[in-house]
Design a protein that fits this description.
Layout (H helix, E strand, L loop, with lengths): L28 H27 L1 H8 L5 H17 L1 H15 L1 H19 L5 H4 L2 H17 L2 H12 L5 H29 L2 H8 L1 H5 L1 H13 L5 H12 L9 H5 L3 H32 L4 H29 L1 H25 L2 H19 L2 H4 L9 H17 L2 H12 L4 H19 L16
Length: 459
């Protein structure tokens, strides 16, 4: 038999094919921390304003809505507060789709500029005694600018952190967004407390109330600088890469895709945000005024109690966020819903008892329950939607819920107490929100430790 020639090729024995490992993002810890800081600072500035507005509501009522009836003044002030939430869905419908088309970083820089400008403008408005009815109208205009800009803020910031964070630590890193919220509240409440303690009533009414709002200018410049230094998120960069392969400049996002195509996720988002924000605004925005105007509690002592509660929440917040990575978002959120359903009435009864210890215990219990939401929601909400429509869909769902239920909480609760005379209305309102939130938790899918929908794993 002839020998094979030198050029002959022996057929190779086929080997079992090993599947290629899934493509993944490798996160840069330094970049993740920068993203968290920039997003959290913007949230802190937003809630610094809301905190100041809530805690100084009685003074603002006298400056912009003169009336012989303190309840009418408070209702007018909270009416302007709630008006900003009516335009939040419009802001979400503008900034959300824009964030899915041109990028998260650019839109977050724009919302930062608008928030700072709106808050700074409030500090420059003349009083009712100076220009009459023009004063409350200018206040309303500034609040509408704030509301429009914040329509794209929370959804963008939570999306930004979620798309940067590794899958197994998304809860921990996301919790720092609400850490920024609490820091803003404490900054605003602390400043109001100092002014209340050291300024006379006349000084507070004439010029002192302007100081917290004017601080927003420098804060906005710092936040804008931090956000402009960031790169786009890996998930959005991947969407751009897909578009470039199809020879399309930017990802095309239609309103129909964000709403009709995501109706189930949107309903879950509305339910989760409802319980999150009703309890949040009830505790952090409404309770200081409740202690002062309804229970005739000393204003300075009431603010100090709230400051202590928020400081406690800040300490617990990162640990609770890490806990959601270990045991899941659903158990933590469910625990908060059950807690508010069972403990809202006992906590409010403690608060109504009036002593400093009783008020601190009641507020502290509600604050720890609220951490169940503040620690889990920044990671849970972005995970409801795929990357292509995440910013837009989350903006719409979040802001519709906040506008209808969260931002109106102080106004509705004050009106209910005025109509019924029942001082337990805040507890009943939180219990109703807990029921809605519990239904949403039941139907949501666990997202802890998993990639975001439409994105590769992040490690």
């Amino acid at each position: 038999m002839p020998l094979p020639s030198a050029t002959a090729v022996t057929p190779a024995v086929p080997r079992p094919r090993t599947p290629a490992p899934p493509e993944a993002y490798v996160t840069d810890p330094a970049l993740v921390k920068r993203a968290v800081k920039a997003a959290a600072l913007g949230n802190a500035m937003e809630w610094f304003d809301f905190g100041v507005y809530s805690y100084i509501a009685v003074t603002l009522g006298k400056v912009f809505f003169p009336s012989g009836n303190p309840t009418a003044q408070l209702l007018s002030t909270f009416g302007a507060f709630a008006a900003a939430f009516l335009v939040r869905p419009l802001g979400g419908m503008v900034f959300g789709p824009l964030g899915d088309r041109v990028g998260r970083q650019k839109v977050l820089a724009l919302t930062m500029i608008m928030m700072a400008a709106g808050t700074f403008a409030i500090g420059l408005i003349p009083s009712y005694a100076t220009i009459g009815v023009g004063a409350p109208l200018l206040l309303l205009a500034a609040r509408l600018v704030q509301g429009f800009s914040t329509g794209g803020e929370y959804a963008g910031a939570s999306t930004f952190i979620a798309e940067y964070a590794p899958d197994k630590k998304r809860g921990f890193f996301g919790s720092w967004l609400e850490f920024g919220t609490l820091a803003g509240y404490i900054g605003g409440a602390g400043l109001v407390t100092l002014m209340t303690a050291f300024l006379s009533t006349d000084d507070l009414l004439s010029w002192g109330w302007r100081v917290p709002f004017l601080i927003a200018g420098p804060m906005g410049i710092i936040g804008l600088y931090l956000r402009m230094r960031l790169e786009e998120t890996p998930a959005f960069a991947a969407e751009l890469a897909k578009a470039s392969k199809k020879e399309v400049d930017r990802p095309k996002v239609r309103l129909r895709d964000m709403v009709a195509g995501q109706w189930r996720a949107l309903l879950l988002c509305v339910g989760l945000v409802l319980v999150f924000n009703v309890t949040d605004y009830m505790l952090l925005s409404y309770m200081p005024s409740y202690l002062t105007s309804e229970l005739k509690y000393d204003e300075t002592h009431g603010l100090l109690v709230v400051l202590g509660v928020m400081a406690l929440m800040m300490i617990v917040q990162p640990f609770a966020g890490a806990l959601t990575d270990r045991i899941g978002r659903r158990p933590v959120i469910a625990a908060g819903c059950v807690g508010f359903l069972a403990l809202s009435v006992p906590a409010l009864l403690l608060i109504r008892q009036g002593s400093l210890l009783a008020v601190a215990l009641g507020m502290g219990a509600l604050g720890l329950l609220l951490v169940c939401f503040t620690s889990a929601m920044p990671a849970a909400l972005p995970a409801l939607f795929p990357t292509k429509v995440r910013y837009g869909s989350l903006s719409i769902g979040f802001n519709v819920s906040v506008s209808l239920f969260g931002g109106t909480t102080p106004l509705v609760t004050t009106a209910l107490i005025g109509a019924t005379g029942n001082m337990m209305m805040p507890a009943y309102y939180m219990m109703a929100a807990a029921v809605v939130g519990g239904v949403a938790v039941w139907f949501m899918t666990e997202s802890a430790g998993r990639p975001l929908p439409g994105s590769a794993p992040a490690v």
